[in-house]
Amino acid sequence: MQVQSNVSLRDLNTFGLDADARFFINVRSVEELTAILRDPEWKNFPKFILGGGSNILLTKDIDALVIHPDIKGITIVEETEETVVLEVGAGEVWHDFVMHCVDKGYGGVENLSLIPGTVGAAPMQNIGAYGVEIRSVIVSVEAVDIETGEIRVFSNAECEFGYRESVFKKALKNKYVITGATFRLSKQPVLNAAYGDVQKTLQEMGADNPTIRDISAAIMQIRRSKLPDPAEIGNAGSFFKNPEIPVAQFASLHEMHPEVPGYPVDAETVKVPAGWLIEQAGWKGYREGAIGVHARQALVLVNYGGGTGAEIKALSEKIQASVAEKFGIRLNAEVNFI
């Protein structure tokens, strides 16, 4: 375990932005993590936790000790004829974990195929896609207190999951390092194929009696058709959250724009696709030097190479202002600005 100085983080953020960490350490176990947190040399030094970097926008160098949790492992801790409980290290690549579950026939995360990032970041964001959110399968989250080095296990309820939110992004932001999560998955899965183009894609694939592998394959096909691969074009997936607005506001919006899509959240709230709003405001395919808005998905901001986080942040603010002016809706970023 070695602390390095002036380390480029270009390969540790999916935007491919060239920012430096003043100090950097890779930790491969909870013991290594607690040791560095309790080390008197680093005790009072500012710290920054960086996992897969799939949901951050680096707008500057990080003047801190950047800790990269690289804790691996997938372990069965409980199993019945119906379910299996898995303990998973925070450093596992999320999609690799999903594929492991698909291969084993464990249902519950197949709709979350191909989401970039690590297992440790997944509960922080309460990642979700195609009708499924991670909170539906999480039993608990293990984390270490940055201040004390103490280990704490958070129950599902204590994680306070919301739409792309958790307690780790709100009340406990920058206070804990997630080291692992425990998932309860089904060995007799109930498939979720009703969202978006999933059913249509399954039909095109000829999957008349789909399995979780078919669901996963369909979702990967859809995502690849709409979203750029970060290995080819720098991006962090969906840049903005889909806004949720009151029913009355949606009714007024629908009068002015009859084509606007809306999805009821509950009796009082409607979710409006942020990508649709951005596209209608004229931003889809927009390019400004080395950065821009993806040509196939307006919800994705991209770095074509050589762009800066500050430039992407400025573009996002222009988009927010434009959408607010046209539709009266304020978009909130899903990506975390650093």
Quickly count the domains: 3
* Total of helices: 8
- Percent strand equals 25-35%
Mean pLDDT: 92
Termini separation (Å)? 26 Å
The H/E string reads: EEHEEEEEHHEEEEEHHEEHEEHEEEHE
Question: What proportion of the residues is helical, as a percent range?
Answer: 10-25%
Strand count, sense and closure of the main sheet? 5 strands, antiparallel
Q: What's the β-strand tally?
A: 20
- Cα gyration radius (Å): 20 Å
Shape type: globular
User: What class would the helix/strand composition place it in?
Assistant: alpha+beta
Please identify, by name, the CATH architecture of the largest domain: 2-Layer Sandwich
Please give the CATH class of the largest domain: Alpha Beta
CATH topology of the largest domain: Uridine Diphospho-n-acetylenolpyruvylglucosamine Reductase, domain 3
Lateral strand order in the biggest sheet: 6-7-12-10-11
Low-pLDDT runs: none
Describe this structure in words.
One of its GO terms (molecular function) is UDP-N-acetylmuramate dehydrogenase activity. Pathway: Cell wall biogenesis; peptidoglycan biosynthesis. Its EC number is 1.3.1.98. By secondary structure, the chain is of the alpha+beta class. It has three domains: about 5-70, Uridine Diphospho-n-acetylenolpyruvylglucosamine Reductase, domain 2 (2-Layer Sandwich), CATH 3.30.43; about 75-185, Uridine Diphospho-n-acetylenolpyruvylglucosamine Reductase, domain 3 (2-Layer Sandwich); about 235-335, UDP-N-acetylenolpyruvoylglucosamine reductase, C-terminal domain (Uridine Diphospho-n-acetylenolpyruvylglucosamine Reductase, domain 1, Alpha-Beta Complex), CATH 3.90.78. Helix content is about 25%, strand content about 25%. It is built from eight helices and 20 strands. Strands 6-7-12-10-11 form a five-stranded antiparallel sheet. Strands 1-2-5-3 form a four-stranded mixed sheet. The longest helix has 19 residues, at about 310-325. It is globular.
